[in-house]
């Protein structure tokens, strides 16, 4: 085996190793950015204002406008739980699967927050 044939192989191996290392580093770096629910959550407030939140984080509690919402459309790829409280606690929750919507019953209070099922 000649020395000239060994050099290109060594360079290829180094290039592949460097590429794999960069790919692993990029994947690790992106995972720290946090996952989002791809798509919009759209809700209509008690005052008939239409609010759309695009790709919110799947983590945490998301507050709805102070007036609350009486209609919510889940256009994301993740299921949503609606709450009557501002801090995603309490009874009277509503489960809204991905690509569905829900409207409050007459006489019931508005939704004031939501969180994602993940």
How would you characterize the overall build of this protein?
- The chain is an alpha+beta fold and about 120 residues long.
- Helix content is about 25%, strand content about 30%.
- The chain is built from one helix and eight strands, in the order αββββββββ.
- The chain has one helix at about 5-30, and strands at about 40-45, 50-55, 60-65, 70-75, 80-85, 95, 100-105, 115.
- The chain has a four-stranded antiparallel β-sheet, with no helix packed on it.
Number of DSSP strand runs: 8
What gross morphology would you assign? elongated
Oligomer: single chain
- Percent of sequence in beta strands: 25-35%
| Rg | 24 Å
Major sheet: arrangement of strands? 2-1-4-7
Q: Total number of helical segments?
A: 1
Please give the share of residues in helix. 10-25%
Order of helices and strands: HEEEEEEEE
Classification by helices and strands: alpha+beta
- Please describe the biggest sheet, giving its number of strands, its sense, and whether it closes into a barrel: 4 strands, antiparallel
**What is the first-to-last residue Cα distance?**
56 Å
Mean pLDDT metric: 82
Low-confidence stretches: 21-32
Keywords: Signal
Organism: Streptomyces globisporus
Protein name: DUF2690 domain-containing protein
């Amino acid at each position: 085996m000649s020395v000239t044939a060994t050099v290109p192989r060594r360079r290829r191996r180094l290039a592949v190793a460097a590429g794999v290392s960069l790919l692993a580093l990029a994947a690790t770096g992106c995972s720290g950015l946090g996952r989002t629910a791809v798509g919009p959550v759209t809700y209509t407030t008690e005052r008939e204002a239409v609010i759309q939140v695009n790709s919110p984080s799947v983590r945490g509690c998301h507050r709805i406008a102070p007036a609350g919402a009486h209609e919510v459309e889940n256009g994301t790829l993740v299921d949503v739980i609606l709450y009557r409280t501002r801090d995603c606690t309490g009874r009277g929750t509503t489960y809204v699967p991905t690509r569905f919507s829900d409207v409050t019953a007459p006489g019931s209070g508005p939704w004031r927050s939501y969180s994602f099922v993940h």
